[in-house]
Amino acid sequence: MLAIAGGKGGCGKTTTTLGLAAALDGATAVVDADTDMPNLHALAGVPRDAPSDRRGHPHPDDESVTVYPAPPTGDEGREARSRDAEARLRRLRDVPTEATLLDCPAGAGPDAAAPLREADAALVVTPPCAPALRDTVKTVAMADALGTRVVGAVLVRSRVVPSGVESLLGCSVLGTVPPADPPVLDADAVRRAYRNVAEKLQASKEL
């Protein structure tokens, strides 16, 4: 399992999750691990209600991608919800796929820690602006504290890697994704960017 993580909401995690899923070879599962503000199902164009924990929806534009929306939340507290989320991710490990990508919550609380703890590795996503980069540094630190290796970063809404970014994040930037008008994933340049990142991940055996 590869966690797609970032410091703030709106930093490009969900777009990157789906962009990478479309670019990877073989069957891929994408899992919404954000129970507070789930939007993977909306961006993918599938219903919010999943058939079950272990059955998702086929992506309407790519039959090799299966989408697992976040389950509805109940009245349980945050810690109980985090435990439930971790148990769900463990169940999804048995789903036969070439790769499983987790669309993680933003922030540094228990909800954000749960998928990072269950993941085998993490890929951080951020635009190149200073506030977002500072929050992403916190995400990298949280992954390190949980023992989850950060395999690299993706810079979104950018065509270049600013000087010092890799040193700040403590990991390599695997690619940049240029700005594009919505629907972002329909842009050829964006698709090429995610293909380049996917090729690097697969070549390095990080999936």
Task: Describe the overall structure.
It is a single chain. It is built from seven helices and eight strands. It has a single domain (2-203), classed as Rossmann fold (3-Layer(aba) Sandwich). Strand 7, helix 6 (165-169) and strand 8 form a beta-alpha-beta unit. The model has no long low-confidence stretch (mean pLDDT 92). Strands 3-4-2-5-1-6-7-8 form an eight-stranded mixed β-sheet, sandwiched between helices. Helix 1 (13-23) crosses helix 7 and helix 3 packs parallel to helix 4 (110-118). It is globular. The chain is α/β, with parallel strands linked by helices and 207 residues long. Residues 41-84 are annotated as: Disordered. Keywords: ATP-binding, Nucleotide-binding. Residues 2-158 form the CobQ/CobB/MinD/ParA nucleotide binding domain.
